Amino acid sequence: MTRKHAGILLSTGVACLTGILSACGGAGAQIADGGIRGTGSSVGPVSGFGSVFVNGIEFFTDGIQNRQVISNDGIATEGDLDKGMILRVEGNWDDSLTGEARELIYDDTFRGPIDRVATGADSGSQFTMFGQTIRFDRRTVMRLGNNTSLEQVVATGGHVRVSAWRTGEGYRASYVGVLDALPNGWVELEGVAGSLTQGEFSISGQRIVLSDNADYFDSLDDDELAGKRIEVEGELRADGVLLARTLRLSDDERRFLDREDGEVEISGPISELQIAENSFRVNGLLVRYSSETEFDDFVEADLSSGVLIEVEGEFRNGVLIAGEMELLEDDAELEARVESIDLASGMLKVGGVAVHINDGRTLIDFDGDWQTVLAVGSFLEIEGRERADSQGNIFIEAVSLDIDDADQDESFHARGKFTRDNLEGQVLSILGARIRITDEDDLDELQACDGDAVKVKYRSSGTGGYTATEVECKD
């Protein structure tokens, strides 16, 4: 027989999520931050440690006994967390961008074997688990252990845990990590349940059979499964059937239960965008904006499905009424060597481009503090947003940063915004770097470019200047 549990597995606390919207000037400039401060919940990917960084706030965890993490997925303490894992923090914070955590809460989105991996121009980079599509990109934190690729994980029959955002087309992975062993020997998936017939139902084609002692949470029961977005854990049998041990509402459905008139911050990809109705969804939550909503360094026309956004506002009648919104999607890429480092301002000069590192927001995808690991000459891969300070100086607000240990041929790569004003004679300005164009074909390419971005391969001249070796107009 099945057992029903009225309580929610994870404690809920108060629904006030922190809002940190940052703007940065050029080298040596002051950093200004605004947004909601207070007490409640913050949900987002972990971006750093030494405490726990989530949504731009450094949460100190000294007040949590043994730095415990509330989870049934084999994540017991803060030391088991990894960058990219979508974490919920209950605590308080203030304008210093620091706070005290009372609880750390984590739950996998998927856990188990990968069915197949597809990469390429047509499919993008994605894989499937239990019949569901999960997209990944350069911002996804990949922890593959001794495997060199996801394809190798599939070939060796390995298991992974996935922390992901829900999108209109499936899921977008924030974290993918190989597991040495499944916690409790259980896999996990979520999705919309089909009709239950004789103790069996399916989610996206995955056949699921209820065990004799399956546990129900969140007031679920046999009569209410069909059409609900739920989370299922249990053993995956040799015949591919999942034997369900626990069933509860999915993270997105469960997170805002019994929360009214509270301040909320949430980040994730936009889905179900309705410009005419001033609404969209993030992780399944309906968001409405108005003329009173503050757009941080973007306009309504920049909203599009799949773009990462951070929204803060008030939760009313099951709807998030947006007070402030910030796009998190990157529009700039850079691969080049570090030329200078200003630790005080968090500014780097990389391949002629000014780059700002925000300790609370930039995902540093290597071990150690960037202040001690990076050095002049380090070759970096950077993704971020192109911004301008009050004097009009262009820089990149880094979203993710990684060190490329491979031998380089000293070629740099940059992708950034482009208009005809970026081209002055034979000099192209991209991301604030001025690059000389010496090839007539490349110059013709730029002069005829109808796109809104360009990708440039270039080299340092050794005298403080740069010369392009290849130029491509991008739509």
Automatic annotation (TrEMBL):
Residues 1-23 form the signal peptide. It holds the Pfam family DUF5666. It comes from Marinobacter fuscus. Keywords: Signal. It comes from the Bacteria. The keyword Transcription does not apply. This is DUF5666 domain-containing protein. Residues 111-175, 191-245, 268-326, 337-390 form the DUF5666 domain. The lineage of its organism: Bacteria, Pseudomonadati, Pseudomonadota, Gammaproteobacteria, Pseudomonadales. Coiled coil: none annotated.
